[in-house]
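Box S2. Input/output pair 1.
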Amino acid sequence: MSAPVLMYTTAVCPFCIRAKQLLKARGVEQIEEVRIDLDPVRRDEMMEKTKRRTVPQIYIGATHVGGCDDLYALDAAGELMPLLETN
């Protein structure tokens, strides 16, 4: 079982799609998606929590991973799978 994954996304976001593809390839079966383009309150929440305005913003458990590039860097460094397994 993998750690819970929360991802702030929008409808038309190629980086969101790439991030989801990587997570699924690493065994993540469920991603809680928060569509900030549909919910301005959740957009404000994302910006307050992450101090960033871009999507995706990804949380694995309580850990803020960052965006798509951050996720791929974490994977390349061999740190994504341990994070998914321990959180």
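Box S3. Input/output pair 2.
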Amino acid sequence: MVLKNRIKKSSYTYRWRLFISTVLLVWAIIAILVAWEYNNEKRYRSEFIRSELAAIDSRIIYAYEKNLDIPDFVKFVGQYYDNSVFDEIYVSVYDENDNLLAHIGEPLPLPHDDLDVAQEYDTPDDSRQALVRNVGKEGMFFFATASSRDGNVTVCTAMPYTFTLSRTLAGDGSLWLLTIVLTLAATVVVYFSTKLLTRNITLLRDFANRAAEGKPVGDLDKLPHDELGDISREIFRMYEQRVEAIENGKREHRIALHAVEEKARLRRQLTNNINHELKTPIGVIRGYLETVLDNPDMDDATRTHFLTRTLDNVARLCSLMNDISTITRLEEGADNIPVSDINMHDLLYAIKNDVEASNLSGGMKFSYDVPLDCHIKGNNNLLSGMLMNLVKNAAIHSHGTEMKVTLVSESQKFYVFAFYDNGNGVAPEHLPHLFERFYRVDSGRSRKVGGTGLGLPIVKNTITSLGGTLSVHNRSTGGLEFVFSLRKWV
């Protein structure tokens, strides 16, 4: 209730502050526009009256030059302007001897030097030259003299600053009525506009307080469909994003914590597996060497057999250490692996020669079907080791007669290859575990068939580190098929 009253009080105060400041600004603008219009209208009326008065002189001079009767014409002019703003005009016509020929109203004296002149300017004309003087409110509104071209006639015209003239210059009052109506209308519009605007601000304030306190924000359809409504909806979206970000942060923290724990578990498992894998060759080596040392009278054939077995286990130990080093480097430095343009056809050609020269395939035939212009983004040493591991795995476990690498398909960014053999394959329950470290398919996970148990994990990490994917399945015609993708060099 206290917060609600505070919101109402704040909104009420802001509403009147906004109303007063806005209406004063509107009134000031209206006043400026009215003053500007009034001055323009007054200036226009003044110029119109002056031009009309100046035209009287020109008409009288024109009548003289056309040999019209001057007194009759002047009388006509006086009658023409009866009951108008020019009703009190003074006109006097003199001849060349300064004799008064005709006049309207009181006779005007000819111009003299001590006339109180506020402003004067010359108006050139083909038939006359006129001097116009404006002497302000305390004197004449208009005083002018005009002479014919032969100088025989001089016309003096004057217009006193009368009440009728001042009202004419001020206008007919419609401007002030319009000003009052416009001011009242603007005041009403500002009043209701500020009322509506502060209502929206109140809604926005209430919505913001609810969102900040984590309370239900209410029905968003009540918010206005204007800028303030858009702001409110944006705050709501920010509020939802904030809540979602907090939940995501907690979830990511749990995932990261789980990943850290899983990584630690895998390291412990790897350490235990490495220790277990190292014990066997080291124990065998120690046993053979101790046997040779404890039996100096051993025959040469037996000693040679023991030393050969020792050398085999040393080679196995070296192979295991190399594989451990490789898989560690792939896991910890995947982002730092240098890549270059590798021609897959040339790489497979070199591997085929190495396999045949070293008999690494164990009597199985190795072949490939890859186009000549097949460029991938990779690392030559890693890809060579990966393919050699697939060859050794097939040679040891497949019991088939041939193995082959083919290009299966390609997309805009990837080539998809397949490595398969025509051997026995593996039981379906073993397929999900083939890429686990030290996993062995043979019963009892014995080491009779050889290998370090890290070949396929190295293959998996190599493909992943180069941005590709790897999967394995049993072929319908027999044997295993590894399908892997590698990025194109573009």
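Caption for Box S3: The first strand starts at residue 90 and ends at 95. Confidence is low (pLDDT under 50) at residues 1-9, 113-138, 444-449.
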